[in-house]
Sequence to fold (637 residues):
Amino acid sequence: MNNNPGIIKRIFSSIWRVFTFTRSFVLNLVFFILLFSFIGIILSSGEEQVPVPDKAALVLNLVGDVVEQKREVDPMEAFLSEAMEQKDEKPEVLLADIIDVIGTAKKDDRVEILVLQLQGLNRAGLTKLQDIAAALEDFKTSGKQIIALGDQFSQDQYYLASTANDIWLNPQGFMLLDGYGRYKMYFKTALEKLAINQHIFRVGTFKSAVEPFIRDDMSEAAKKANKLWLADLWMQYKEDVANRRGFGIDNFDENIDNLVAKFSAADSSFAQYALKNNWVDQLKSRHEMRSELIELVGTNKKGDSYSHIGYKDYMAATNSSLDKSAELTGKNIDRVAIVVAKGNILDGTQKPGTIGGDSTAKLLRKARNNDNVKAVVLRVDSPGGSAYASEIIRQEVELLKKAGKPVIASMGTYAASGGYWISAPADKIYAAPSTITGSIGIFGMMMTFEDSLSKMGIHTDGVGTTDIAGFGPTQALTPGMANLFQLSINRGYQEFIQLVATNRDMTLEEVDAIAQGRVWSGKKAKELGLVDELGNLTDAVVAAATLAKLEQYDTLLIEKEQSPRNKIMQQLLGQSTTLVSLFSANEELFSIDLATHSVKNKPLSQFITMMTDELKLMNQFNDPQGRYTLCIACGAN
Fold:
């Protein structure tokens, strides 16, 4: 009995010591971070932060997904992750930065060749790949060579590699072009086993966003619609690659028997198959690649590799990222404002990387209230989402037009469903040939759990003053409430096609014939009258300036303003990160950490990721009326 107080005291004393040590460690860590930050600022003041060798190769070693707009990340969190060598699980690379870096390198006499080392590149989408490829083709007009190399090439990676003058693949490497497909998991039977009742309200024969919850397979209507736009994208891919590589579009082995025969003839080697098929030019080991690059640009200072600089270091050295100032003050010069609407459309205020009805409307309002802004380009890269949030954004587009400021919608990889809703009122719509658009339809969905709960002995009962009092997910959906929701969805669809008809100078019948939730490529959408021109963001900016009758102008990217705290932390921690980079060893040829890239090749991780993404998407739904205009079928894999 007398020993118990002593034992308890010792336990709590041990816990307190651990707590004290942890607190001291964290405080010391923060102190040294700030110390290194200030040292970095002092040492780098007025000097070039990252040296570019006089004669070097620029290594375009892109890691992560290519995006129109990066998601918001806390500067301190980002720095700590980098300092402790914790890799971002979903790294992102800004499309505008890639294009600008390539353009800068084209004019930089220090850069003699460009090396594409793309094994860290994840998702991009054909539209973004086409924009990057155009920049690479323009780079070659300078007379400088592009060399693509790697241990393997995914389909997206190879699209960019095909722009190179020479493609090198490791003799033990892998490459296979598997085309485009759209495959999803379906949950109808699983939901039935869990006794979860799903209630779907939709308009549109081809509005397949809700099919995973009401079917165990893809409907014939969805297969027909999806196959059409997937075939269009695949044809564009084949034509682009074939033209650059100098062979016909029949050199894509879509038939498994032909593929197996060619693979067998290549001694069952993927590398030999790629070489014989003219996909690559040479098979080289890493040592052979490094040696040949040394012959082209010389050795680095350490003498153990070729003279080169990586993508991030070059961008920092040349300060080549786009001016992203969100301030609307400055020189009294006419501006074409660019507002990026990227991600799912959700109600309320959302962080960058997701479209918020309120937050995106606020950006458009800033453009409207700025006297220097004479025209606006709304860059849309979205499969849609909340119908209500889409309408809030559309209203701001209309107010811009009423203010006498032309609006051009520029469609990226996706501009479907809600993405088309916010694009429709623009004075002109530009889309890439590979843009996925349309999906003009609307749906509502809710689940009730009365049967699941009853199996656990949980029941809901009570009284109310009206037929709808107490309505919720623990009770069965009555026929009357179901009819109410369906009428609301029908009204939403009529509003959508009326919006399109009014802005596209079409009749309701004409819109309905090409709507019904059906997805189209940008190329086909132009034929149908859903878009005006085929072109990229630059073309849209020129069109906006032309409509505003501007001869001299500058562009202004309007985005969420950083808080004063984040601005200071980003400056301090950015300088500190640069300092650490200067003290670190020179970047080696195959130094990319491919942990993030390779995870998708692990079946269990892939399955868990797919399930997580599905649940995350469902959890994001926050439309106040439960109405959504979303194209879940828009992703191609």
